[in-house]
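Record type: monomer structure entry
Structure origin: computed from sequence
Chain ID: A
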Amino acid sequence: MKEIRIKSFTEFHETLEPYQRSNLWLFRGHSNPEWELIPKAGRQPYINSNDEVNFNGWLRRAVEFTDLSKLDMWDSLAVAQHHGLATRLLDWSYNALSAAFFAVSEGHETDAVVFAYYSKWYVRRDEATPFEYEGVIRFKPKGVAQRITRQGGIFTVHSPPDLSLNRGLRPEDTLEKLIIDKSYTKQLSFDLSFYGINKMTLFPDLDGLAAHINWAAANRNFWAEAGEEQANKD
């Protein structure tokens, strides 16, 4: 797997330039480079449970809180993933900066990583349910949640759920690793916020707003010249 180490925003920008030539590249950020590309349903303690059964149970009760009647099973699964159910979907983004945010938003003691994934294979919704596909394939949901659209969200579907992307790659697929050096991870979070990538923009609700204000307040020393007023300026 190709690996590129990044120690500044200039290097990050230059590294991303080749990916602009195709809209098939997807990005995902990890705060630890050792984490595998496996969806939640494929990890402990969920791997010992049947994720299809769990999803059907979620569907039966979800109607108490929201109307899913106009959604097919694919988009209903995306809604379940969005609300935290352990599914066989793995989150990706068309936006490399959004992926970088998730890579560096928590913890700065180790390197972080942004994965870049290229594949031409997409789900054909009319051919199978999410539980009938084999291998790894891309799935682009409808705008079922504002956070998904704001984050440029798209998914990979893993069947079985514990199949890592590394093992599910087709010969024509590409997976690359952009390593954010630990010396730069904290600074990158400030650089991203300067360019409009932060909790307030990626989580467009009161929770996201509060989280962003808290982050700015906790890091007010970064804006040494302007103080808290500048830190909270949005």
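Annotation 1: The radius of gyration is 19 Å.
Annotation 2: The CA atoms of residues 137 and 157 lie 5 Å apart.
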